[in-house]
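Morning run. Coffee first, then this:
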Amino acid sequence: MAGALTYDEIEAAARRLAGVVRRTPVLTSASVDAALGARVYFKCENLQRAGAFKIRGAYNALACLPPAAKRRGVATFSSGNHGQALALAAQLHGTAAVIVMPADAPATKVAATRGYGGEVVFYDRKTQDREALARALAEERGLALVPPFDDPRIIAGQGTAAKELLEDAGALDYLLVPLGGGGLLAGAALAAARLAPGCRVIGVEPARGNDGQLSLRAGRIVAIDVPDTIADGARTTHLGVHTFAVIRAHVADIVTVDDAALRRTMRYLFERMKLVVEPTGALAAAALLEGAVPVRGARAGVILSGGNVDVETYARLVGG
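And here it is:
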């Protein structure tokens, strides 16, 4: 994939993923539409294999590896969803995976990663550099490093989620996408640029983790400290070089929502749509439901990016 990433790579990824990932449903809600005065389409990646959109990029990245590299195995660093997705992708490709995960990662994500055959190596997110640790492990063991977001193969795979949404829902005026490291947002923006050129693509971050918003406004990658937020999948400190290039070119804006809004949204999605969505997965829906992006009279798409959350944590977050 030399040069700038294009929509053609998303098409190629979709062919590789056919029959492997689920074409997740696109749901609507009469109560949401009535409250917002809009037509809203929810892409339910919380119902994806391994519980999140991440299997799309992980499987695509492994499918692109040379056979010799694939046989040796892969390594990555992840807060959870990419780690378990890569473990599953490695299992499907018949190879091994080593996942560097934070010691405070949700127990369900750790268990799922191990359940797919992944080897978990813990790190302290406050004192250790997860990428440096993963790179050292990969070099020591001769593994191919598959980063969680800043890789053209990952971005192309993630873009297939928005491709499916736009094919199923038709052209949209707005597309709201959760933002951590930017793989999903970059892929979605590329898909929208081709399939719905008039669509305004909006990234949504936690209020305490707005490095993407700061970067878009500054015109350069801005790094922050590890954010303190319930959206564990968006506790990234900076965008990637590849993701920022696409976001800067194709994303209209990046907005934020606070943790209280995420809790309200998770509860709303459960009560009204019977959907279990993790905090990070609820970012885009929260921006819509809390009015951070006015969509009255418009057609809006929302990606619910994941549903991997501990039962006890989920009950605590939505119960009060």
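The chain has a mean pLDDT of 95. Good start to the day.
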